[in-house]
């Protein structure tokens, strides 16, 4: 058929085809397909791919694709990644979507990372770790054995755990290997704190002592308390050591000479915790950079200005009940911005600039729960049976880990949290090392450690 005749025929067929009903059009197409050979069928298949299976994600500008993808949840996006290589490439490169998903999980975001494919991988790692936490599979346990009497004092720093015992010794352990690095003879230890060179101990013999790790020698002895010393803290820059005692006082000492600079009075119960920390906020009473001392007893937290040893007056006293009917748990968190302490009423958070209570967190059955660590995203808590992780954004418990029967000291020194940077948000690097340690009735130390990523 000549081209001119074919075009006229095609026009007539087209006009007739358009006049048919949908059913008649379908029957016509079926008949034409049955008459077609391989060449025609291949041509038909190729054109249908273009007409009916248009990849909108491939055709849209990248900015519009990212805008549409932001409306989908991460699990749906992961499913969409299976559609094609092109979809997987576009979805994986949508940085904002995956960063938001990671933040929602409580993951720290490093905005300096420019690789567009990085954050999907981070999200997959994050979702795995959070699932392990939810399924109670993120931790493992271990024990340190070496003391021959009760272990009262624990302190952790940079992968090292110090233990002080009734067997008149203190030991320094590498948590990752379980090996004892140093063991020195001391007095009975009710509190310990250490650095690379020295160990400071508070004792049931009413004194504080400073020891040299390498030789075991006592380099300083601080005498003056008339009751057991339950808590110590120090700062080399200030050359100051502070101690809290069962004699209801806090003493401020010159760290290098052992001289008592001041005795702070006002507590009417054992002082079970002292914390020396830089202030990070401004108020009428202090400025950023000022050193602040917090001391806590069974009912009150007192705030003192360090640096004014003469006529040092308490700036403020905090409590959760005016009639002293509610006692505080023997743990205290202070990061320079917030003060946090737990009680039978719940977890109290004070704003350090105003001393106002910001919130009271009351999860179920909180009466026996104690505070271990408090961050921007998570809090670490425990009771006689479990270690708990709370998401502070929702105030819901998201994970728990069983604990053995242990000796829960009323002074709060026979248990402690390990690494705590992850409480400000996990990042795939800080979920390693020690989570929790406590002394056991058989004189060992029970450790809860992060398990490596599966």
Automatic annotation (TrEMBL):
Alphabetized Gene3D superfamilies for the sequence: 1.20.1280.50, YVTN repeat-like/Quinoprotein amine dehydrogenase
The keyword Repeat is annotated on this UniProt entry: yes
Domain F-box as annotated: residue spans: 54-101
WD repeats: 144-183, 222-263
Any Pfam family hit: F-box-like
Keywords: Acetylation, Repeat, Ubl conjugation pathway, WD repeat
Function comment: Substrate-recognition component of the SCF (SKP1-CUL1-F-box protein)-type E3 ubiquitin ligase complex.
UniProt subunit comment: Directly interacts with SKP1 and CUL1.
Protein name: F-box/WD repeat-containing protein 2
Biological source species: Prunella himalayana
Gene name of the encoded protein: Fbxw2
């Amino acid at each position: 058929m000549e081209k001119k005749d074919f075009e006229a025929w095609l026009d007539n067929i087209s006009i007739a085809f358009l006049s048919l009903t949908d059913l008649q059009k379908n029957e016509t197409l079926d008949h034409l397909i049955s008459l077609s050979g391989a060449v025609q069928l291949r041509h038909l298949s190729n054109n249908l791919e273009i007409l009916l299976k248009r990849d909108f994600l491939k055709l849209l500008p990248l900015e519009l694709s990212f805008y549409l993808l932001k409306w989908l949840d991460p699990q749906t996006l992961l499913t969409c990644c299976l559609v094609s290589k092109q979809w997987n490439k576009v979805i994986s490169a949508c940085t904002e979507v995956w960063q938001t998903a990671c933040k929602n999980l409580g993951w720290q975001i490093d905005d300096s990372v420019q690789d567009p494919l990085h954050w999907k991988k981070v999200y997959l790692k994050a979702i795995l770790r959070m699932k392990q936490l939810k399924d109670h599979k993120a931790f493992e346990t271990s024990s340190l054995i070496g003391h021959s009497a009760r272990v009262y004092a624990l302190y952790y720093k940079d992968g090292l755990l110090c233990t002080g015992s009734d067997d008149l010794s203190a030991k320094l352990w590498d948590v990752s290997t379980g090996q004892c690095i140093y063991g020195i003879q001391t007095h009975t230890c009710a509190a310990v704190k250490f650095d690379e060179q020295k160990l400071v101990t508070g004792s049931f013999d009413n004194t504080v002592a400073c020891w040299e790790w390498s030789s075991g020698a006592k380099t300083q002895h601080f005498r003056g308390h008339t009751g057991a010393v339950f808590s110590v803290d120090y700062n080399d820059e200030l050359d100051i050591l502070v101690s809290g005692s069962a004699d209801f006082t806090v003493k401020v000492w010159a760290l290098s000479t052992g001289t008592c600079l001041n005795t702070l009075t006002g507590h009417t119960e054992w002082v079970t915790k002292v914390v020396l920390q830089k202030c990070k906020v401004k108020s009428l009473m202090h400025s950023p950079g000022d050193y602040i001392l917090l001391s806590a007893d069974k009912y009150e937290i007192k705030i003192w200005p360090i640096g004014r040893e003469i006529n040092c007056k308490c700036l403020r006293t905090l409590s959760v009940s005016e009639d002293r009917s509610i006692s505080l748990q023997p743990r205290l968190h202070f990061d320079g911005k917030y003060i946090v302490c737990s009680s039978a009423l719940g977890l109290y958070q004070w704003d350090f600039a105003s001393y106002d209570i910001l919130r009271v967190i009351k999860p179920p059955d909180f009466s026996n729960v104690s505070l271990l660590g408090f961050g921007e995203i998570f809090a670490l808590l425990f009771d006689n049976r479990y270690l708990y992780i709370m998401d502070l954004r929702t105030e819901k418990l998201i994970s728990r880990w069983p604990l053995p029967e242990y000796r829960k000291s009323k002074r709060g020194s026979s248990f402690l949290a390990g690494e705590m940077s992850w409480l400000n948000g996990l990042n795939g690097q800080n979920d390693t090392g020690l989570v929790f340690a406590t002394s056991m009735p058989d004189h060992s130390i029970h450790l809860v450690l992060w398990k490596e990523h599966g």
